[in-house]
Structure formats: structure tokens, C-alpha cells
């Protein structure tokens, strides 16, 4: 069971993964490195003990991302300097596609997420999709569906909690 600080960090990370992916892609210019770092961020949040209070989840998680990106760029530079004889390495010519098992796993998770979304009320589902997929603010979502900003936010939070609970139940 995650502690409160860890839960906040996990909520932020999962809710802003696409934004973080864009941030890392701009810095690293590599989908593979970006995915590796996103995975590492998740693992570090999972290992977080919560012994220190985090005042700003966004700043904390982005600091982790930035530090890992810098480490990766340094690692690349060292690798290039070490392999500067001009020969292509396997890693440089390999296709940037994930392994088939990861694709299948991702598709099955997407199917379960679609099932979870299907069990939401129409308002919750609409608010969630507008906010998470269409990147609308709570205010914009509220205006679009005829709710106050705070009600739109509540619908998104309830939808997110439902989806997480559903995914945990499915994944065992």
C-alpha cells in the first residue's frame, strides 16, 4: 500500500505521463531512452519511502526526470567516445520497436482500461477523456459539459480512481 507522499507522486506521474514523455523526448530525442527513463521514474516512485515531505509533486518528479535525462546524455557521450572508431553498433542500427510481448501486454492493458472507462457514468467518462486525452483544463471541461470547474475536477478524480482500482483488480 503506497504511503501518502508516494501516492501523490504516483498520481502525478500517471496523470501526466504523456506530458513527461514529451519533455523527455525533446531532451533525449530517443523514444527508447524516453521509455527507459519513464520506467525508471516509476520504479523510483515505487521505492520512495515517504520519509520526507514533498511540497510540490510536479517539481519533484520533473527533477527526477531531468536528472535521469542528464545521466543518460552523459552515458551516451561516454559510449560515443568509447566507440568512436566509426563502426555501427547493434544498438545504433536496431529497430526502435518494443518487443512483441510488450506490445501484446500494452494492448491488453488498453483493453482493460477501455472496459474500466465503459463502467463509468457518462459525465465521468466525458470529463476524464476531455481532461486526460484532449488536454483540456478543468475549467474548459466544465464549460464543455455544463458543469462547474470543481465538479468537472471531481468527476475526473473519481474516474481516475475507478480506473486505477479496476486495473489493480485485473492485474492481480
Automatic annotation (TrEMBL):
Residues 113-163 form the RNA polymerase sigma factor 70 region 4 type domain. It holds the Pfam family Sigma70_r4_2. Residues 19-78 form the RNA polymerase sigma-70 region domain. CDD domains: Sigma70_r4. GO terms for biological process: DNA-templated transcription initiation. The keyword Glycoprotein does not apply. Keywords: Sigma factor, Transcription, Transcription regulation. GO terms for molecular function: DNA binding; sigma factor activity. Belongs to the sigma-70 factor family. ECF subfamily. This is RNA polymerase subunit sigma-70. It comes from Paremcibacter congregatus.
